[in-house]
Amino acid sequence: MRRPAWNGSPPSGPEEARERILTAAMRCIDTHGARRTSLSHVAAELGVIRQTVYRYYPSTEALVAAVGYAARDSFVDRLVAHLAGRADPAELAVEGLAFTVEELPGERYLTALMSTGQGTAFSRYALSEVALGACREAFTRTDVDWAAHGFTGAEFDGLIEFLVRVLLSFVAEGAEAAAPPRRGAELRAYLRRWVAPAVRPEAVACVRPVRAIAG
């Protein structure tokens, strides 16, 4: 006997429908893995036809990306809590990157696109304005006075984009490398050597005259 639509409890509106679809998608990822989860699995979990899910999410990629965004806020809260007490911008950038590199592989919803083989899609979403905005918000919630260190406006935006691009290189390495990527003290030493200098105030100051001349 066929189950009633929405398992007998239709959503009150589009917002609730989206939330229930995302929750069902997470359950399907837990059961089948991100690579094997499909819109048909999600529809069956909800007791609806696949076209109902299509109405809100036009592809599996779009749905999996939405799952990642839904899981983002929880991860950002953990990151900000981990960085509490750090007021040096370079050290905060190093630890923020290191923490994310080490913790991200265990975040099955955040990395679902990578698990489906959609590495390019993962990078595209990570560099989207929505994702970059979440990163900016996370860094402004830390104890660093970014403006006092010269990071305002375009400089701050550029820093966030730079750090996300560095993160993506580590994510890609971890997904493809046969040997485990750097971790722990080795990872932090590497980031202090190559990333920290770009985040120090003197690095910000030295690029301003070049921009002034170019303008």
UniProtKB/TrEMBL annotation:
Keyword entries, A-Z: DNA-binding
Transmembrane segments: none
Domain of life per record: Bacteria
HTH tetR-type domain location: 15-75
KW DNA-binding (keyword) present: yes
Pfam family, one: TetR_N
DNA-binding region range list: 38-57
Statement: the UniProt record of this protein carries the keyword RNA-binding: no
Protein name (record): TetR/AcrR family transcriptional regulator
